[in-house]
Amino acid sequence: MRRRNIAIMVLLTVLTGGIYYLFWTCSVQNQIKRTTGRGFGGVGHFFMIFFFSLIYLLYWHFVIAGRINRAGGPRNRLIGWIYFLGYVGGIVVAVVGMSMIMSDLINWLEYMVDVVEAGGTFSFDTFPSLGFGLVLIFIGPLISYLASLIAQIMIQVSINRIGRSQ
User: Fold this and answer.
1) Rounded to whole angstroms, how far apart are CA atoms 12 and 165?
2) What residue ranges in the chain does DSSP mark as E strands?
3) Residue 81 and residue 53: Cα distance in Å, rounded?
């Protein structure tokens, strides 16, 4: 199994906006396939990610711990759960942010209708502050991204332990 410098791996993942993460998962899957004979090779893994993205990656993060264990590494059941909880948490935070924005917009539209019905004029100066909702919409994907980065680090640490013992 190929050992990688975790700091460089994280840096490349962050700098490429996650593209290196896809390359890395394909490379790890290819190594696991050669070592254990189980699962797809790197190209098959890429196409599964391409067509079934989140569902397949959730499955893969749960299964990879067992495959690393079969290859001689430690079994770490947290990998799949960290990835899962990070994605669910990120989605929940983003949905809460969107619902806050929608609530503000609906209230603003009701206010504007009342102003017009009363014969007044309105301006966009009274547009609601959408700040916190927008912040949550951006924080949600960051939570998911950090969860995948933590899972990536945990997997690579396990692989580096295999490389050290061989």
Assistant:
1) 26
2) none
3) 17
What separation in angstroms does the CA of 113 have from each of 78, 127, 129? 52, 13, 18
Question: Which residues, at least 6 apart from 51, have a Cβ–Cβ distance to it below 8 Å?
Answer: none
Continuous segment of H or E residues that includes residue 31 = helix 19-36
**b/e 129-164 (16+ beta carbons within 10 angstroms → b):** ebeebeebbebbeebbbebbbbbbbbbbebbbbbee
Whole-model pTM?
Answer: 0.75
Contact in structure between 85 and 147 (CB atoms under 8 Å):
yes
- pLDDT tens-digit series, residues 84-134: 999 899 999 999 999 988 888 888 888 888 888 888 776 666 666 677 888
What is the DSSP code string of 32-46? HHHHH--S--HHHHH
Other Cβ atoms less than 10 A from the Cβ of 85: the count is 14
Positive/negative CA dihedral, 63, 32, 18, 52: negative
Task: Give pLDDT tens digits for 19-66.
Answer: 898 888 888 888 888 888 888 888 888 888 888 888 888 888 888 888
